[in-house]
Amino acid sequence: MSIFEYNGAAIIAMAGKECVAIGSDLRLGVQFQTLATDYKKVYRIHDKLYIGLAGLSTDAQTLFHRFVFKHNMYKLREERDMKPATFSQMVSSTLYEKRFGPYFVSPVIAGLDPDTSEPYLAGMDTIGAIETAKDFMVAGTAPDSLYGMCESMWRPNMEAEELFETVSQCLQSGSDRDALSGWGAVVFVITKDEVIARTLKGRMD
């Protein structure tokens, strides 16, 4: 079993009209043994920026605290929050620093540009090679079924409520086809005015 599949994960970020959504499943396991069913893999950096970390959960926790520290230092120096594109470059350089002994995580970044309210989606590999997308980005142990659901259900310029429904359906249906993820989900919808967080019940088998 790959080290990326050790704890299991399913993460989806999706763009809408002046809004963006990111969600993850809630299962924490050790291979096929389930340890917890309330483990969120999406972390808040600030109100317009969230990051999902799939992969080894211990590395994800370590990296999240490093990202918060670096963002706080940036905020003290610049007196403003990081833009999503800037944060993405910082995540990339942090991962590349450790390229000879990498963190076993696959980050997914979702945010809104504070000036234009344009959605920003990015993903990267373990050494920080950035890939951006205009529609959706997935990570985790079931990328094929997650991609399949997103490709069939995503459409441009969705409003916040429709975007939530779409991400929820994609996340639940995609993780139902994967033994290493599932057991419910949490979805964050980021708009220019608010952040809406909802927890979903899923199959418990």
TrEMBL record:
Compartments where located: Cytoplasm; Nucleus
Gene3D superfamilies reported for this sequence: Glutamine Phosphoribosylpyrophosphate, subunit 1, domain 1
A GO CC term assigned to this protein in UniProt: nucleus
GO biological process: proteasome-mediated ubiquitin-dependent protein catabolic process
CDD domains: proteasome_beta_type_3 (cd03759)
Keywords of the record: Cytoplasm, Nucleus, Proteasome
Keyword field contains Cytoplasm: yes
Quaternary structure and interacting proteins, as annotated: Component of the proteasome complex.
Family as reported in the entry's similarity comment: Belongs to the peptidase T1B family.
PANTHER family registered for this protein in UniProt: METALLOPROTEASE TLDD, PROTEASOME SUBUNIT BETA TYPE-3
Function of the molecule: Component of the proteasome, a multicatalytic proteinase complex which is characterized by its ability to cleave peptides with Arg, Phe, Tyr, Leu, and Glu adjacent to the leaving group at neutral or slightly basic pH. The proteasome has an ATP-dependent proteolytic activity. Non-catalytic component of the proteasome, a multicatalytic proteinase complex which is characterized by its ability to cleave peptides with Arg, Phe, Tyr, Leu, and Glu adjacent to the leaving group at neutral or slightly basic pH. The proteasome has an ATP-dependent proteolytic activity.
Protein name: Proteasome subunit beta
Species of origin: Elliptochloris bilobata
